[in-house]
User: What shape does this take?
Amino acid sequence: MSSANIIVLGATGVGKTTLINAVLGSETLQTTRTSEVQEYYSEELDITLVDTVGFEPRNEKKQVAVKKVQEWTKDGIQKGDHAKSIDVVWFCVDGTAPRLFDEHIRSLTRAIRPWKNVPVIVVITKSYSETEQIRNMDMIDEAFAKHAKAINLKRIIPVVAMPFVISEDYIIPQSGLEHLIDWTMRVIPEGSEAKLKAINNFKIKRKRMWAQSIVLASTGSAATIGAVPIPFPDGALLAPLEAAEIRSIAKIYGIEGGTDSDNLIRMLVEMGTAGVVAKMILNGLKAVPAINIAADILNAIVAGSIVAAIGEGSQIIFEQIYLGNKSITDTEWVKNLMETTMGKTIAGNVDEIVHILQNKGKIGMSDVLVIIKKVFIDKK
Assistant: This one.
């Protein structure tokens, strides 16, 4: 596991690089405007401080910093690269500024959106007096209250990163750095856990997207196969397609090979065309005399609906197994899910299809996939 990454964000000129210099105990970093995301490792603290492009108020440069941060963390969220992920955020606010721009906070939320649950510490830079600190903390509390759901704000810490000369007789010394480091170390475990959840959530969303594409493609093929002038209950033609659909979804979730996975896939296929799923859809659609629709179109809708339903159910089942919430050998849970929970969903979807068919008028093959996708897939 790599060291914890502390990403330092804030408006241009707020003092991010100066703060990093102070924490590193170095003056080697140039304090001119940072144009790229740069990493600085502290062996003493075992943390990596990540300096970033400053947020700009002007429209043409407003998104530059956000995009730079997103590009830097791309491999962190997509590939689980911990060296390019975020454990804690330091959001720097200029203590001498009269107000905190709401746009800068929105830029913060956009920059860390995939990592929104990691701890955020607001660092008030150039905070030279107790009166200013109180005013700044009140201003920050008020500004962040609007974004409480998007930002996990843990602490507001005033810091003087470098001694500030008021006059020959009065110099304000460094302050707040130890407090900042102490709080950072305190919240790193929470940040690391949130980081892992963010990476896992991305993986799950991506697997769901891939599974949905399999279901949609299989549904289109099923509708084409089903558009035949024969009674569909005799159409065992869907079994190979269902098997391919289920196996493809299982592969996305890393569930393939072995007796247990083969048995589970076989059971799901049996519950499809020849089983409970088909019966629910057939009974729901073909028992409605008010539907005045060509037989081939109705067969296409029935076939597509069966494959869509079995695909959606399979995706739920394999995801739960992938997450470790269910065992691949728990066939009773699978049966219960398909017959009860999925059964209610299928019944509701069939009712919605009936309503669409009764009110749409003439239905063509081009409408079939649109209807099934809307009812079975898009609602998920």
Q: What stands out?
A: The two ends are 36 Å apart (CA to CA). The CA atoms of residues 215 and 311 lie 5 Å apart. The beta strands are 4-10, 38-42, 47-51, 88-94, 119-125, 152-158, 164-167, 170-172.
